[in-house]
Design a protein that fits this description.
It contains two helices and twelve strands. By secondary structure, it is mainly beta. Strands 1, 2, 3, 4, 5, 6, 7, 8, 9, 10, 11 and 12 form a twelve-stranded antiparallel sheet that branches. Strand 9 and strand 10 form a beta hairpin. It starts with 19 loop residues before the first strand and ends in a 13-residue tail after the last strand.
Length: 206
């Protein structure tokens, strides 16, 4: 197998107050971390470049309130949003905790649409899937880094996937962010900073 060498970026953790939360809620947690507990969390960091980010998290189990996705699937997951142009067009790098531990890179693409009311849960394409370590209560790290046209994903410092994103994904422009579904977790979100000065989006999407 060809070795994958990951160069570390100079990333800066984002405090909960610095995130634009478009759905759900974030609270402070011990040690400078943040906490999510709910059926949904959608958030972005408008000042990020949208190309690279890291998420260190400790899964504390499913949230008290649980809600299926629009597809009807009950999924317990947390992960990153990249190139989040709007609610209908973005890249996800998700750590699925249940029903099956996986890391999934997916593209949501709905040209000409920008609001959840327009696209709903349509337009998803899975770009890559890989097994993920299982077990709650342990601190994990999910990292996604873009260099040119190539995206590298690591889990707990180990390479999971590296490949070229579809051309449609490379044309998207937007910040990095967070997504969680039916999750109770502590986390530290660390995006790559950029010159972007975007406003908080009105909604987070499905």
């Amino acid at each position: 197998m060809r070795a994958i060498v990951v160069a570390l970026l100079a990333l800066t953790p984002t405090a909960a107050r610095g995130l634009c939360v478009t759905e759900g809620a974030i609270a402070p947690a011990p040690g400078g971390a943040s906490q999510v507990e709910g059926a949904r969390l959608r958030a972005v960091e408008p000042a990020s470049d949208g190309l690279s980010a890291s998420l260190r998290f400790r899964d504390l189990g499913p949230s008290t309130e649980s809600r299926p996705l629009a597809s009807g699937e009950m999924r317990h997951q947390i992960g990153l949003k990249l190139r989040a142009q709007d609610a209908c067009n973005l890249v996800y790098v998700m750590w699925r905790l249940a029903p099956e531990p996986q890391i999934v890179v997916s593209l949501k693409l709905n040209p000409g649409q920008s609001r959840s009311a327009e696209c709903g849960n349509r337009g998803y394409t899975n770009v890559a899937q890989a097994p993920a370590p299982a077990g709650s209560g342990t601190w994990r790290t999910l990292r996604a880094e873009t260099r040119g046209t190539e995206l590298t994903v690591t889990a707990d410092g180990r390479p999971v996937w590296r490949g070229t994103l579809p051309a449609a994904a490379l044309r998207l422009e937007g910040p990095a962010g967070l997504r969680a579904d039916n999750t109770r977790a502590e986390f530290v979100f660390t995006p790559a900073r950029g010159a972007r000065r975007g406003a908080c989006p009105a909604e987070g999407g499905e």
